[in-house]
Amino acid sequence: MIYPETNFREGLNELAVHCKEMLKLIGEDTEREGLLKTPMRVAKAMQTMTCGYTMDPHQVLRDALFKEDYSQMVIVKDIPFFSLCEHHIVPFFGKVHVAYIPNGYITGLSKIARVVDIYSHRLQVQERLTLQIKECIDETLKPLGVMVVVEAQHLCMQMRGVEKVGSITTTSEISGVFKNPTTRNEFMNLLHA
User: Fold this and answer.
1) Is the pTM of this model over 0.85?
2) What is the pLDDT of residue 3?
3) Beta partners for 84?
4) Active site residue 154
5) Annotated catalytic residue, options 14, 21, 68, 86
6) What number is the average pLDDT over the span 59-84?
7) Is 126 tagged catalytic?
8) Over the stretch 155-188, which tens digit does the pLDDT of each residue have?
């Protein structure tokens, strides 16, 4: 992940207090041995899983921006991610696939994965996550086009509600030359190759 679990933000202790109250409200004995350290563990976990709020994904791309005349498709696929659904604060996870066609500038390939990490480490919905990744690359690199495809499993749909285990949700966002069906199909063919 982006930072190790040692760089915690302000409000950690207060978050632990609220977690302890939540445990009481669901009927737990917060003084039993197994739960004594749980409030602080949950507070630390929540800060780790939402550390994307403290980072600028645009700056991550700008820090590794290189002038290059390459003008063919660049694809970074199968980028794993974990996020928290903002509706139930339950995880959703999967893979992100990103393609862009440079317009004079490229970025370090690992920076694309970092952009995914930053946006996924916020309370999210899959649709917004997909759009934010696309917009960040579009606005920062100003490529000829960007396409982002996100495939995810949502535990809010598998553990509760309809309880449909194994279902996959796919979202996509496109800009520029990817609006052309030929370019879009090239990406999709390479994605499944």
Assistant:
1) yes
2) 52
3) 91, 123
4) yes
5) 86
6) 97
7) yes
8) 998 888 888 888 999 999 999 999 999 999 999 9
